[in-house]
């Protein structure tokens, strides 16, 4: 009996010793140390309070949080985390339980990691001049609204976020964070693939987002460039490609928005007086609505875009939105009905957009159930042929292009 008790006690002691080995190694390592971990399973809930590197030297290096708290907590500048599988965070939203949480840091790197079964993926707060790259991130198997954010920037500036893949998380958010480059990321089956709030001077380029509720949504932000992004098949009746709400001095250029309910959504933008937004050379293709205006939105420059295959080109859901006060010129409209006698690829007459029978469902959402049906299509045709109510003038393109 005593021998059995001794063996059990030794097993518990040895198991506890090995469970804390990684944290003890971190605590005992000098600043600037490089810890190269061999393949194996390591206990998580580790805390890094000094500059050092943790690198998996081969595949299969797993750090497991065992369902409690955050798996790796970084509280120092100059930290590198690379080539790891990080899994098993807790599930407490109020604690922001995450695979990797990095705070009060700078010039750090998190790269080539797989982060799975973690409520939040990578949580970055008050961290500057760092790199987050080539990570695969997925959340816990929960309903969409109950998952955590795959990647979250909070008061973090001048970082490079590139080539990450977020699948079945909630959002990627950039809040109160400025000067970040967000490039070549991929998002699928999330809610907001990319959501900005009070963020400025960010550069968003060459990302691919598909099968999310919203592709990219910019709110209360300014001085940002989004170029070369592809947003495809945003899901749901209000699935959105790119949204602008209360934003100023934005440039959207060379993006492709395809197969969404709403291609580009503009709400009270530009927001600041005497500013503009530039929406240029984008491909807005095969959406239910190409451009949707909400609230007063004037002084946008909408130029050189391809607007093709959409059910509705322009939607204005608010009376007095002043859509005609935007500078709209040189776009290709597939339903332009004018001519080009001098063959200069510019229509001889402006392309004018009116709201006909579609105002029935724009101002009465219950009618939208029939949107796209033969009945509404027939009403629209008859309204254009012989208007039974005064059509609403929305905007005109002074120099529409006839060829792509």
From TrEMBL:
Domain Periplasmic copper-binding protein NosD beta helix: 133-338
Residues of the signal peptide: 1-19
UniProt keyword list: Signal
Entries under SUPFAM superfamilies matching the protein: Pectin lyase-like
Pfam families: NosD
Superkingdom per UniProt: Bacteria
Record's protein name: Nitrous oxide reductase family maturation protein NosD
Species assigned in the record: Halarcobacter anaerophilus
Taxonomic placement: Bacteria, Pseudomonadati, Campylobacterota, Epsilonproteobacteria, Campylobacterales
């Amino acid at each position: 009996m005593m021998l059995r008790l001794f063996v059990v006690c030794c097993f518990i002691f040895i198991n506890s010793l090995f469970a804390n080995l990684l944290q003890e190694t971190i605590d005992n390592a000098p600043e600037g140390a490089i810890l190269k971990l061999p393949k194996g399973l390591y206990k998580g809930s580790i805390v890094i309070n000094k500059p050092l590197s943790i690198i998996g030297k081969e595949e299969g290096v797993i750090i497991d949080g065992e369902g409690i708290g955050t798996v790796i907590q970084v509280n120092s500048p100059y930290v590198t985390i690379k080539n790891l599988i990080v899994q098993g965070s807790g599930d407490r939203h109020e604690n922001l339980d995450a695979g990797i949480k990095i705070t009060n840091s700078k010039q750090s790197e998190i790269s080539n990691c797989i982060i799975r079964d973690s409520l939040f993926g990578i949580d970055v707060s008050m961290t500057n001049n760092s790199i987050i790259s080539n990570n695969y991130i997925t959340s816990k198997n929960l309903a969409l609204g109950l998952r955590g954010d795959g990647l979250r920037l909070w008061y973090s500036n001048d970082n490079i976020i590139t080539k990450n893949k977020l699948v079945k998380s909630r959002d990627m958010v950039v809040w109160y964070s400025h000067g970040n480059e967000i490039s070549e990321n991929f998002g699928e089956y999330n809610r907001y693939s990319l959501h900005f709030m009070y963020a400025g001077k960010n550069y968003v380029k060459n990302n691919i987002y598909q099968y999310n509720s919203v592709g990219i949504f910019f709110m209360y932000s300014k001085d940002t460039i989004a170029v070369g992004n592809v947003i495809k098949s945003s899901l749901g009746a209000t699935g959105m490609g790119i949204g602008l709400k209360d934003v100023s001095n934005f440039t959207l250029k060379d993006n492709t928005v395809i197969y969404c309910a709403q291609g580009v959504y503009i709400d009270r933008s530009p927001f600041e007086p005497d500013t503009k937004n530039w929406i240029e050379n984008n491909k807005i293709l095969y959406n239910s609505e190409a451009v949707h205006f909400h609230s007063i939105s004037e002084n946008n420059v909408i130029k050189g875009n391809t607007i093709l295959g959409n059910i509705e080109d322009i939607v204005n859901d608010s009376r007095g939105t002043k859509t005609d006060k935007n500078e709209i010129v040189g776009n290709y409209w597939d339903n332009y009905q004018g001519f080009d006698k001098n063959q200069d690829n510019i229509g001889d007459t402006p392309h004018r957009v009116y709201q006909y029978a579609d105002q029935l469902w724009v101002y009465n959402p219950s009618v939208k159930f029939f949107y796209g049906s033969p009945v509404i299509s027939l009403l629209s045709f008859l309204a254009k042929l012989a208007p039974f109510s005064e059509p609403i003038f929305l905007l005109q393109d002074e120099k529409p292009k006839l060829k792509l």
